[in-house]
Write a structure and sequence with these properties.
Blueprint (H helix, E strand, L loop, with lengths): L5 H22 L6 H8 L3 H7 L3 H20 L3 H12 L5 H14 L3 H21 L4 H19 L6 H12 L3
Helix pairs in contact: 1-2, 1-6, 4-7, 5-9, 6-7, 6-8, 7-8
Length: 176
């Protein structure tokens, strides 16, 4: 039997998570069935279950992946990376991510495991932001709340001018 490469396994995993993410963004966690995810992914149910035990496992994987991606984005110049993160919320392909992110926050109120993942994903950027702001934890929390508020407004399909929003935040961060 031929050995499957790690790249192939990672691509399959990504394919399943992307399908699950589309389903969750469209219908929510509780209205999405495993059958919906199987159909959306185009992969057999057996193969989906080879990678994930169920929806909760997929949600956890999506949250973990997001946090890893954001951590990578926020390395380097903290202020510039933060403004880039705000700009990225307005990317046309990011609307489903915004909808899914809001659902993850809601799920964190129900699931202690998801809450732990969400908090872990916020704690790292919070500590890094506070350190960059000379230990100002309160201001770091305000910056995270600004990001979360923008994500929420975007998920609601509000007519948000993301460039103007980011420029306004940049003016707050730029000393007079």
């Amino acid at each position: 039997m031929p050995k499957v490469s790690s790249e192939h396994l990672a691509a399959r995993r990504r394919q399943i998570l992307e399908a699950a993410g589309r389903c969750f963004a469209r219908d929510g966690f509780h209205r999405t069935s495993m059958s919906d995810i199987v159909r959306e992914s185009g992969i057999s149910a057996g193969l989906v279950y080879r990678y994930f035990t169920g929806k909760d496992d997929m949600i956890a994987a999506i949250v973990t992946d997001w946090h890893e991606q954001r951590a990578a984005r926020l390395s380097g110049d903290p202020a510039g990376a933060y403004l880039d993160l705000l700009r990225s919320v307005g990317d046309p392909g990011a609307r489903d991510d915004a909808r899914l992110g809001v659902q993850v926050w809601a799920e964190a109120l129900r699931s202690p495991a998801i809450l732990a993942l969400v908090k872990a994903g916020v704690d790292g950027p919070l500590q890094a932001a506070a350190a960059a702001l000379d230990g100002d934890d309160a201001l770091a929390r305000v910056l995270i709340a600004i990001y979360q508020g923008l994500v929420l407004q975007t998920a609601w399909d509000e007519p948000v001018d993301h460039a103007a929003f980011t420029a306004a935040v940049q003016s707050l961060l730029t000393p007079p």
